[in-house]
Specification:
The protein is mostly beta strands. It has a domain of about 100 residues. The chain contains 1 helix and 8 strands. An 8-stranded antiparallel beta barrel has the order 1-2-3-4-5-6-7-8. The longest helix is centred in the last third of the chain and has 4 residues. The N and C termini lie far apart (about 90 Å).
């Protein structure tokens, strides 16, 4: 989903707007200078509310597509006003501008065969670890009390209340 566009101004700085339902800001790319090959290519800067300064709200790393070889920028927008960082990717267009895209992250894939009886699967977890799950019924925990087993603590002494005799 496209959430913004950045275009180069007269000085060659890419400036534009990123807008979602909960976030809207004028943003710019500032080149990040580093000799570290793993450093980001750009800092993502946002214009402050009073429009007097720029505030860093993220960083962007350059990647290339495994399929097409096309280069793109990827990173996150993060700000204390956000409940969670916004993952973004920026794709350069033929005119030199960048389209800013957002995509909801997908849940991580589950392990193949995990929790099933297929090859390499783990055995079922049982109460004692030595009985098959099919040997226990659902009501077995209720029949043995709270399911915590026998206590090793001594039983509490019975409370007795001495009755005082009343003088008549």
């Amino acid at each position: 989903m496209n959430i913004g566009t950045l275009k180069a101004n007269a000085e060659g700085v890419h400036i534009g707007r990123i807008t979602t339902l909960t976030f809207s800001a004028t943003v710019a790319l500032r080149a990040f200078e580093s000799t570290n090959e793993r450093a980001p290519k750009f800092d993502l800067m946002a214009l402050s509310a009073d429009r007097r300064s720029w505030v860093k709200i993220g960083a962007l790393w350059e990647y290339s597509s495994n399929e097409t070889g096309e280069c793109f920028l990827s990173g996150q927008i993060d700000d204390p006003s956000l409940s969670a960082p916004i993952p973004v990717a920026m794709f350069q267009q033929n005119d030199g501008s960048f389209n800013v895209a957002w995509r909801r992250s997908k849940p991580k894939a589950s392990l193949d065969g995990f929790g099933s009886e297929s090859e390499g699967a783990l055995p079922p977890l049982t109460a004692t670890g030595d009985e098959p799950a099919s040997d226990r019924s659902v009501d077995s925990a209720a029949a043995t009390g709270d399911g915590l087993g026998e206590s090793t603590a001594p039983k509490p002494a019975a409370k007795t209340k001495a009755r005082e005799s009343v003088d008549a």
